[in-house]
Structures are given as structure tokens and as C-alpha cells.
């Protein structure tokens, strides 16, 4: 299956990122789409399987790139989909689950923000199937830090490319504005 990028459109209602920041980020997202098509094509060809080696090999390079690029596609799509305007609020079901697993909705929010500050790549509110609860997980790269058996629910890009053009080093302003722009209808659907 060929990867085709989702044609996300910038909305003036969004107050967390401006159009210039959005467009730059969209070009990076499309880069991951292109790389996935390149990698899938390579995997169909002669990849020199007999030379596969964990120190260095062509196959290792493809395999490292595969999970990095695919998670790059998935996480960016979830991120752009869960950004709405400032009008949305969490419903009672969302609040019930987050209160169950974090003590209160407000406590979940504090911990999500702290996880964002502590992350170099992504912060993800995910459902951890093994322990049957929601967790805020910290990723230092697309393929570093994920829980193997979990479902992403809310995704925030903490790579500097996501905010630096607009916010420079004011990372906390970006995080706080993101928290006001979550599309809670999408979050309810994912739960
Ligand atoms: Fe990104």
C-alpha cells in the first residue's frame, strides 16, 4: 500500500500554531510519507538479507528507518488531528477515565504538561493494555520510548521543529497554548 499524505488544512481558529509554523511542519510530515514509500519499495527489492548485521548492514539501515519513518507518519497524523480550536471541552467519560488513573482530571493535566517539558520528541497520553490504564508517556524520538502494546489517545509534538519558528525558546507557552487547543471530541472517539 502506497502512503499518501493527509491533506491537512490550516484553520484560523487554531491558536497554538500560526500558518507559517504549520506549513513548515507539514513539509516535514510529507518527508516521512516519502521515506516510507522509499523504504517499502526497498523492502520489496534485493535487500541483501544474508549480510544482515546489527553493527552495520544495509538491512539494519532499512529496518531502523522503517520504524522511525512510520512512527513519524503516525504520530504527526494523530497530532494534527487532535488540534482543534479553543472551543472544545472534555466530556464526562474522558474526565472519568483520567480521574480514575491520575486522581483527578487536573492532576492528569499537570502530569501531561510536566511530561511534555521532560520530552525531546513526543508526549502521548496512551492506553497501556498490559496494565489496563492510561499513561502519559515520554518519547525522545519517533521510535524511542513507546510502549509496545498501547493505543495513542492524545499526541503532542515536542520536537523543536514543532514550535521554534513561532515560539523560539518559549516552550512552555507552546505547551500551554496546545492544552487550550485540544479537540476533545477526537479524544473521546479514540478512548
Ligand atoms: Fe513534528
From TrEMBL:
Residue ranges occupied by any Manganese/iron superoxide dismutase C-terminal domain in the UniProt entry: 91-189
InterPro entries from the UniProt entry:
Fe/Mn_Superoxide_Dismutase, Mn/Fe_SOD, Mn/Fe_SOD_C, Mn/Fe_SOD_N_sf, SOD_C_sf
Keyword Manganese: yes or no? no
Question: Molecular function terms in GO for this entry?
Answer: metal ion binding; superoxide dismutase activity
Q: Where does Mn(2+) bind?
A: 25, 76, 157, 161
Q: Would I find Metal-binding among this entry's keywords? A: yes
Q: What class of enzyme is it?
A: oxidoreductase
Q: Which Pfam families match?
A: Sod_Fe_C
- Which Enzyme Commission number(s) are listed? 1.15.1.1
Keyword field? Metal-binding, Oxidoreductase
The family this protein is said to belong to: Belongs to the iron/manganese superoxide dismutase family.
Q: What is this protein called?
A: superoxide dismutase
Organism equals [Clostridium] fimetarium
